[in-house]
Design brief:
Layout (H helix, E strand, L loop, with lengths): L8 E5 L3 E7 L10 E7 L1 H11 L3 E9 L2 H13 L2 E8 L7 E4 L8 E4 L10 H5 L8 E5 L8 H14 L4 E4 L10 H14 L2 E5 H8 L5 H9 L4 E5 L5 E5 L2 E5 L12 H14 L4 H16 L11 H10 L7
Parallel strand pairs: 1-4, 1-8, 2-6, 4-5, 8-9, 9-10, 10-11
Antiparallel strand pairs: 2-3, 6-7, 11-12, 12-13
Helix pairs in contact: 1-8, 6-7, 8-9
Length: 323
């Protein structure tokens, strides 16, 4: 099924938002006098990364019909991300706003998601999409955190599978978006069982399994019904389960400016590598390289490398640590 990725036309489901970052790098929010403004949101970041790496991406989500939502629409255009399936919503719903610091020590990220506009995505929004236009569907766990977005996302999975498209799922568990851990565990587990490619870290798989000590076994079990499962372990690298085998890979050391954006960039690099027909190990390592590049730069979407920057990094950077 992953052969279909070679068309490189991706439907990405989930939020776009505005990111504010105190400048210059290292500045605390409490001391901020100036801010860098950029597009953010996990799904939009992944879409930006895919476009920069030579693919095409269309975002399916909702934004508030106000200046913040309009900014996000303008940014999607600037990054070359199609927004035919981005719907404006009125009322009290608001597009996400994140304020995060470009610093590692005592890092602060503050995300405003009360009445989040992206949670207004409906089944009707999903059913308006022509899935035959795409080669894969990508989403993150956030879309499942509230209704009607949850029901809509599951409907998207159903329609993608009916159209023969691989479903790529980043667990991306964020407790503040969910009504309770129990609901999150149940819903994310269901989503994982419907996906063809699953990417998550050790804590997320552990959460889905009911205990971090059971996360690795849970990832291995999911791989029996999925085409590909990536179990990330931070500085310890990753284990990728595919075709009954377990591939261990390390990371590319980097002088990180911030801890944010690594997961989104890893996903973009991994999927782009698979779509280019690269061997699995190489695709995983390209994802790891993208993560190292992004944490060493300010911003998330702006920090995503294009193909030239990624190739230059791989040609000049020391090889990955042992996995």
């Amino acid at each position: 099924m992953l052969e279909q990725l070679k068309g490189r036309r991706f439907l990405v489901i989930g939020r776009v938002g505005m990111d504010l970052t105190p400048t210059p790098p290292g500045t605390r929010t409490l001391a901020a006098r100036e801010m860098m403004v950029a597009m953010g949101g996990s799904s939009a970041n992944i879409a930006a990364g895919l476009v920069k790496l030579g693919g095409s991406a269309s975002l399916l989500t909702c934004v508030s019909d106000d200046a913040i939502g309009w900014y996000c629409e303008d940014q999607l255009d600037a990054y070359g991300i199609e927004r035919a399936h981005v719907r404006r919503v009125r009322g009290e719903a608001r597009t996400s706003l994140a304020i995060y610091e470009t610093r590692i020590e005592e890092h602060q990220s503050v995300i405003y998601r009360n009445n989040a506009a992206d949670f207004e995505m409906s089944v009707a929004d999903v059913e308006a999409v022509d899935f035959a236009r795409f080669d894969a569907v990508i989403t993150t766990g956030t879309v499942f955190a509230a209704e009607p977005s949850r029901m809509a996302a599951f409907r998207a999975f159903e329609l993608a599978r009916a159209a023969g498209l691989p479903v790529i799922f980043d667990v991306d568990y964020r407790p503040y978006s969910w009504p309770s851990p129990q609901v999150a565990e149940q819903v994310l587990s269901r989503a994982g069982e419907m996906a063809d490619v699953i990417v998550g870290n050790d804590e997320e798989f552990g959460f889905m399994a009911g205990g971090i000590e059971r996360g690795f076994a849970h990832a291995r079990a999911l791989a029996r019904r999925s085409a590909l499962v990536v179990y990330k372990m931070g500085p310890e690298g990753a284990v990728t389960f595919a075709n009954g085998e377990e591939l261990r890979t390390g990371i590319f050391p980097a002088r990180a400016l911030k801890p944010t954006g690594a997961g989104d960039s890893f996903m973009a690099g991994l999927v782009a590598g698979l779509a280019e027909g690269r061997p699995l190990r190489e695709a995983v390592l390209r994802g790891s390289a993208c993560a190292s590049i992004v944490v060493a730069r300010p911003g998330c979407a702006p920090a995503m490398p294009d193909t030239e920057a990624l190739d230059a990094f791989l040609a000049t950077h020391p090889g990955p640590t042992e996995g």
